[in-house]
Amino acid sequence: MMHTDRDTIINDNAMTQIAVSMLAADFLHLEAGVQLVNRNADLFHLDIMDGVFVPNISFGFPVVEAITSVASRTVDVHLMIVHPEKYVERFASAGADMLSFHLNAVESPEAMLDMIHGCGMKAGIAINPDIPVERLFPYLAGCDFLLVMSVFAGFGGQKFIEETYGRISALKTEIRRQGLECLIEVDGGVSDRNAGKLSLVGADILVAGSAVFNAPDPAAEIAAMRGR
Ligand code: DX5
Ligand code: ZN
């Protein structure tokens, strides 16, 4: 798998990046959705749900591989599955550049972070809105990014939870206190309406699905989220 220009994107911390959740794409015209992201966004956000860790099933390897075969942007895979450690290598081979798992889905977050790094991917830990951000603090040094859920994982199109702002700023403060560079990604109910404030409190990557794909002009929605 080539990790060329995709790898460099995550290091550009100067500006908020936009990740598009493909869960909200038109699956009958998936390539059009992929090209939209290639042309206008920074990352593909791929939500993997197993119907066990979350009460919903999304898509698997055939869809991920179809997307990565034409993706020219960073591919960020968000695992919402039990035993994520079983699938690290498969997602690396399928073309993932970044891989996140939920804190409460594993016994040893450190071992999982090492496994992801061993497969050449950026590693992140995700937490649902009911998990205190302090639970992430012991693992920050081993993370390239943190995925802060602003809705409960499982479904696209949910309402943004306002408490997320305070959680991001607390996490950012701790990242700085520890002298780390890990990025904060926020996921769920994000749109041009809350993007500015999210960037302001410390979010580095904004994930949006329905706001982009349900917009009359998806490229304009992405631009609006960037504040342009
Ligand atoms: C929720 C997923 C999100 C979701 C975002 O479980 O992790 O990535 O697809 O979709 P919107 O932007 O529609 O909330
Ligand atoms: Zn997600």
Characterization of this structure:
The chain has 228 residues and is an alpha/beta fold. It has one domain (17-225): Alpha-Beta Barrel (TIM Barrel), CATH 3.20.20. Helix content is 33%, strand content 19%. Strands 1-2-3-4-5-6-7-8 form an eight-stranded parallel β-barrel, surrounded by four helices. The protein starts with a helix and ends with a helix. Bound molecules: D-xylitol-5-phosphate and zinc ion.
CATH topology type: TIM Barrel
Bound molecules: D-xylitol-5-phosphate, zinc ion
Strand order of the largest sheet: 1-2-3-4-5-6-7-8
Measured by DSSP, the beta-strand proportion falls in 15-25%
Our count of domains comes out at 1
Give a quick precis of the structure.
By secondary structure, the protein is α/β, with parallel strands linked by helices. It has nine helices and eight strands.
What's the helix and strand layout?
Elements lengths: L4 H5 L7 E5 L8 H11 L2 E7 L11 H10 L3 E7 L7 H6 L4 E5 L6 H10 L3 E6 L17 E5 L14 H14 L5 E5 L7 H7 L3 E4 L1 H4 L4 H8 L3
Parallel strand pairs: 1-2, 1-8, 2-3, 3-4, 4-5, 5-6, 6-7, 7-8
Which key terms come to mind for this protein?
binds zinc ion, binds D-xylitol-5-phosphate, TIM Barrel, alpha/beta, 228 residues, 33% helix, disordered N terminus, globular
